[in-house]
Amino acid sequence: MNTFAVNIDVVNISENVTPLAAGAAAAGAWALVNLVFVLMGILLAVVTLALVIPLLRRKKDGSNVLHRSIGARVSLIGFGLTAAIALAAAALFFVTEKLFGAQVLIDEWTLVHAVLIALEVAAAAATLVLSTGREEEVLVPADQ
Questions:
Q1: Could you give the CA distance from residue 25 to residue 31 in angstroms, rounded to a whole number?
Q2: Where along the chain do its domains lie?
Q3: pLDDT category of residue 100 using cuts at 50, 70 and 90
Q4: What are the helix (H) ranges across 6-141?
């Protein structure tokens, strides 16, 4: 049996650091889902306004009259609430998101935006349901 002794130098090869998925969020990013929620909220506020306007103005006997009823007041309050939530969500998006950073799908503010859009949908639905069934109204000319 022959034995050979071999001297081998051990070389340690260092690995390159690979960026992790949280690297983009840590450096500053904006979430696409948050933008979609904000745009949905603005669209919902516009649709609510479009559905509330006919409830405020109706033609009766050929004259344009303004309804000062409970339903009209609920419509205005509900639209105001829906629009306020949409504006709050948009302001939150522009304050919390770093628009010049990378784009990610979701971030730590996505749950807050989801809650805001859920509140806005509930406010819009309540506005439309509560304002259509009210018949106690006082008709006044629209000029006043």
A1: 9
A2: 28-101+109-132
A3: confident
A4: 22-27, 32-56, 70-96, 110-132
